[in-house]
Amino acid sequence: MEDPIEIQDDSYLQLQINEETGFTYEKGIEELLRHDPDVILIGETRNSYTAKMVVRCALTGSLAFSTLHASNTLEAIQRLEDLSISTYDLKNTLTALIGQRLYKSANGKECIYEILSGQDLQYVLEHKTYPKGFKTLSYEIKEALDTKRIQDPQAQFDLQNL
Fold first, then answer.
1. How confident is the model at residue 126 (pLDDT cuts 50, 70, 90)?
2. Which of 18, 19, 29, 117 could form an S-S bond across to 53 if both were Cys, CB 3.0 to 4.6 Å?
């Protein structure tokens, strides 16, 4: 499900959200669950109801992917909790979080990212902070700037505001 569908692909079912006709993310997720899908991709988790439905998808055995607006993976967990997802549910459904930024580079564009998974993810869920030595998104952006892999002014701005 996406709003709007950015790239059409006939190899899987894509659903366009249309709130004017009543087809919201919430309604779409309810319809999807009736078909018992193996994998669900939800364009964006915007509210508590959608977040709860994504967790429901995961609890019913579907592999659920979604995007969420957050500065980094630690903030993503905080946002999910703000959307009324319990730490217990996160521990039982969350496999990985990826925080990323796309910057201009000499080769065109480069994605700078952090991946929070496994023991690091469990540590963050329990302690609400990154484990010692974890390479955060800020660290990765700084490293890319220091090694001149990227020279995008937006990266400097992001680094100061993460």
1. very high
2. 29
Q: In sequence order, which residues have a C-beta less than 8 Å from that of residue 55 and are 6 or more positions away?
A: 85, 89, 93
Q: Give the residues across from 40 on adjacent strands.
A: 64
Contact 93, 61 (CB under 8 A): no
- Report d(CA 3, CA 144) in Å as an integer: 32
Q: What is the pLDDT of residues 136-151, one digit of tens each?
A: 999 999 999 999 999 8
Cβ atoms of residues 66 and 41 within 8 Å: yes
Q: How confident is the model at residue 32 (pLDDT cuts 50, 70, 90)?
A: confident
Whole-number Å distance between alpha carbons of 11 and 25: 21
Pairing verdict, β 63-66 and 39-42: parallel
How many of the other CB atoms lie within 10 Å of CB of 139?
15
Quote the pTM value: 0.85
What is the per-residue pLDDT for 121?
98
Tell me which amino acid residue 161 is.
N
